Amino acid sequence: TFSSITIFVVYDYVKVLTDFGVNSKSIEVLTNYTKSLNTDDAKTDLLKAIELDSENYYAYDYLGAIARSEGDFTTAIGYFKKSIDIFPNGYIAYKNLGDVYRALEAYGGLGDYDNALKYYNILIDKHPERYEGYYGLASINIVQKKYSEANKYALLSLEILDSFDNYTYPRDLEWRSPYILDSAKILEMSDYSLGNYQKVIDSFLKYTVITKKYYSNDDLQNGTLTQFALAANNKITDEKQKQKNDTKFKKLGIITSTSD
C-alpha cells in the first residue's frame, strides 16, 4: 500500500520546515498528505504544497518516494535532486538517491554504483549519526565482494542501530528490527567470506536474541542469518566450541544437524 512508503518522518517536520521559512499553508497541505490513503490523493496534496511554496523540500522528498515506489526512477532522481538544491543539509534525499542508483545497478544493470557511493558518502559526511549511509556502502561492497569494507560499514551501521540512547532513532525495537537484521546479514556474509566463522555465530546469537520475539519460529529457522550461522558452525574445527555453539542454537529453538 501507499502508506508503507511514508516511513521517514522521524522528527518534527512541521517545526523544521517552519524554521526553514516554508509557508504555513504549504506545511498544512503537506500534513494532509501524510494522512492520504492513496497515491493520487498524495500527489495532489504534494504538488499543491509546492505550488504554495516552492521551497517546501519535504514535498519533493515525498514525491520522489512515490515515483520510486512506482518504478519511475528518472522522475524520482529529479525530485530528490531538487530537494537537495533547496536544502543541501538534509538526509532523506541523499539516502534515497544512493538507494535508487544502487537498485538500478543491482536489478537492471542500468544504474551507477559510483553515483550511489557518492551520495552515501555525502550522507555520512553531513549526517554521521545516521545508519543509512553506512548500510548503503556495506550493501554495495558485499555485492562487489569487497568483504573487509562491507564488514566495516555493516558494523558502523549496527553500532548506531544498537544504540538505544541515540536521539535520531525511536526506542521502539520492533521498528528497528528489520534494519538491524539487514545490517547483520551483511556482517555475517562478509565474516563468512573472510573465514571468520565464530564471528558469524557470535553476531547471529547477538542479533537473534535482540529481535527474536518479532519473528516466527519458521522465519527464524529458515532465515538467512540462521543458515549462515549453521554453515559457519560446520566450519568450526574446535569440537568443544562447535558443541557450545550447537547448545546455544538449540536453546533458541533452532534445529541443527545434531538435533534429536
How would you sum up this structure, described in words?
The protein has helices spanning 13-20, 24-33, 39-52, 57-69, 73-86, 92-108, 113-126, 132-143, 147-162, 173-193, 197-211, 217-222, 224-235, 239-251. It has 260 residues and is an all-alpha fold. It is elongated, with a radius of gyration of 21 Å. The protein starts with 12 loop residues before the first helix and ends in a 9-residue tail after the last helix. The relative contact order is 0.06.
The overall strand count is: 0
Strand content: under 5%
What pattern of helices and strands is seen along the backbone? HHHHHHHHHHHHHH
- Provide mean pLDDT, rounded: 85
Report the span from N to C terminus.
43 Å
Shape: elongated
Using the CA coordinates, give the radius of gyration. 21 Å
Largest sheet: none
Q: Roughly what percent helix?
A: over 70%
Helix/strand-derived category reads mainly alpha
Low-confidence segments, given as residue ranges, are 1-11
The total count of helices amounts to 14
Question: What is the fold's blueprint, element by element?
Answer:
Blueprint: H1 13-20, H2 24-33, H3 39-52, H4 57-69, H5 73-86, H6 92-108, H7 113-126, H8 132-143, H9 147-162, H10 173-193, H11 197-211, H12 217-222, H13 224-235, H14 239-251
Helix pairs in contact: 2-3, 3-4, 4-5, 4-6, 5-6, 6-7, 6-8, 7-8, 8-9, 8-10, 9-10, 10-11, 10-13, 11-13
In short:
Helices cover 71% and strands 0% of the residues.
Which key terms come to mind for this protein?
260 residues, mainly alpha, 14 helices
